[in-house]
Design a protein that fits this description.
Layout lengths: L6 E6 L7 H15 L3 E6 L32 H9 L2 E9 L2 E2 L1 H11 L20 E8 L12 H16 E8 L18 H30 L1
Parallel strand pairs: 1-2, 1-3, 3-5, 5-6
Antiparallel strand pairs: 3-4
Helix pairs in contact: 1-5
Bound molecules: flavin mononucleotide.
Length: 224
């Protein structure tokens, strides 16, 4: 096996640290570790930061173009790690049909310094794509069969499209019909039946976790 050390960064864009999204990320991390990568998990909700502030420092003609957002805040060390990473996996619960706000803000800060409006006469980007293996993991309440009706493949798939544009490769993994509440009996929920949620969780979530494991393994193999 190639001896290159693969660095794999995992970003939790959800507020909960033990639930569906983190479990999917941790499974992907185990896959990445199995593939020999150095892994790290970062919880965005631990970090005070905002999205892009449109300072355009990264788009100046003489910009350093080092791929790291110029804003000096608590996210900067994470973005520096992202720059050095060969693999980046970002997990988010779906909130009102989109990634969480923190996930969106992180993506803005990650993507814009690697993005360019500057193309040569042949239509090639003047700024090189920084090759990385990237992926989004989304967890959500709705069932997989209902995703098209809610336009989720387009709305959520746009993140991977942007990551692919900047880093060359991206894919998306979905975990649907998740078990949301710690104790359904305490909450006003009549749209979902706890038994259905539990059955799906018991029967299907292990498959989702296995898919996440394979994702981690696959991305690391591709990064070598
Ligand atoms: C504020 C909020 C909004 C949500 N909106 C959606 C939604 O639009 N579609 C959906 O399928 N699930 C939605 N959910 C459910 C979560 O996406 C789902 O339970 C997810 O798996 C939670 O991830 P976690 O267990 O890692 O916190 C929402 C949950 C919250 C708290």
């Amino acid at each position: 096996m190639d001896s290159k050390t693969v660095r794999a960064l995992f970003i939790n864009g959800g507020p909960r640290k033990r639930n569906n999204t983190v479990q999917m990320l941790q499974s992907a991390m185990r896959g990445a570790a199995e593939g020999g990568a150095d892994t790290e998990l970062i919880h965005l909700y631990d970090i005070p930061f905002t999205g892009c502030k449109s300072c355009f420092a990264c788009q100046l003609k003489n910009a350093k173009a080092d791929g790291v957002c110029a804003l000096r805040d608590d996210l900067r060390p994470v973005l520096e790690k992202a720059k050095e990473a060969d693999v980046i996996v970002i997990g988010s619960p779906v909130y009102f049909s989109y990634p969480t706000g923190a996930t969106r803000s992180f993506l803005e800060r990650l993507l814009f310094p690697n993005f360019t409006y500057d193309y040569d006469a042949q239509g090639n980007r003047r700024r090189p794509i920084r090759e990385k293996q990237t992926a989004m993991i989304f967890t959500m309440n709705i069932a997989e069969k209902d995703m098209p009706e809610w336009n989720y493949p387009v709305l959520l798939g746009s993140c991977a499209n942007q990551l692919r544009e900047n880093f060359g490769h991206s894919e998306t993994l979905y975990a649907c019909d998740t078990y949301q509440f710690p104790d359904y009996s305490r909450y006003a929920v009549s749209v979902f039946r706890e038994e259905d949620k539990r059955r799906h969780h018991d029967e299907h979530f292990p498959i989702d976790l296995q898919n996440a494991f394979q994702l981690g393994l696959r991305l690391v193999a591709s990064a070598r």
